[in-house]
Design a protein that fits this description.
346 residues, alpha/beta, Rossmann fold, 2-enoyl-CoA Hydratase, Chain A, domain 1, 6-stranded mixed beta sheet, 4-stranded parallel beta sheet, 16 strands, 28% helix, 23% strand, globular
Amino acid sequence: MSISEIQDQVAGMTGQITVVVNDDTRPSPRRYLAALQPVLAGRARVLFATGTHRPVTCREGWSILGEGFAGNVVAESNMCTDGTHVHIGTTSRGTAVEIHPWLLEGPVLAVNTVEPHYFAGFTGGRKSFLPGVSSRKTIVQNHFLACLPGALPGKLTGNPVHEDMMEGAAFLAERTEIIMVNGVFRSDTVFCGSFDTSFYKASEVAAVECGVSVKERYASLEIRPGRSLEISLYQAMKAVFLWESAVEDGGELVLAAGCIEGLGASQMERLLLASSASIAVPRFHEEYLFGDHAAIRLQKIRNRISLSFRTGIDMKKFGFCVPPHSCKTVIENAGFSFPVMETENA
């Protein structure tokens, strides 16, 4: 879709528009925002879809929004525990959907990019709303579903996390006008329209653009997540969950990332320690602690392959070994791609 066509759609929105964009752990939407500035000037405010992440800093805000928006619009981050979120429905899987109140006060424009996600199938689209601008309660209940079968990278059909997110976004679409702009990582392709149609079209392109053909599983692989995911171990681990399936049983996988913010999340130390022992898969929301899905996946990975880290974080206390001097294969931007095994598609 051309920029002029997107401008025409957005120009038809009336009243104050809430523009929802990702935080700095995802590619910036500034090129789309710059093109939309003429039709948004004087009637937009920005909500950063931070989910449970920390608030966006002033410097990050400038990087995400670009000069045309940063400093010229009211902007705030989703604070998932501030008690302001509004309940708009409960999904068939039992997730109580609580949304930031701005989204119920007028039309919504969500601008994001679509790339692989290790348990939601793909980022982007409905993920701007759930978990992006939801309460912590909603996010925890949704992420419990990542413990269930079908929550896999590049997979949408039968993925309980994705389907739950779509239900939550549909509740919002019943209450307010939504236009969604979905770009695709590593592509100039962009789709604009309803939250569901535009996302599905973008995910089809992302499956091709971000899927990396792998002929044989690697014996020795180093992955580098990509700049925006290397801020912390919490973010960088997404590359591990995407790429571990491409390593042969007993092989070695090394995560290389700067991790200037250390572990990056309060639950990280608990889940890293838990992954070295036996973890019971929670059966209900009430049995789930935030991060359990990652601990369960990490435990399975540690039992199958040798996982080590070049991150500047002391990982010995979590039972991880020292990484090898080098690996046979290195993959860059591993947090924005996923392996497609040729032998499994023959």
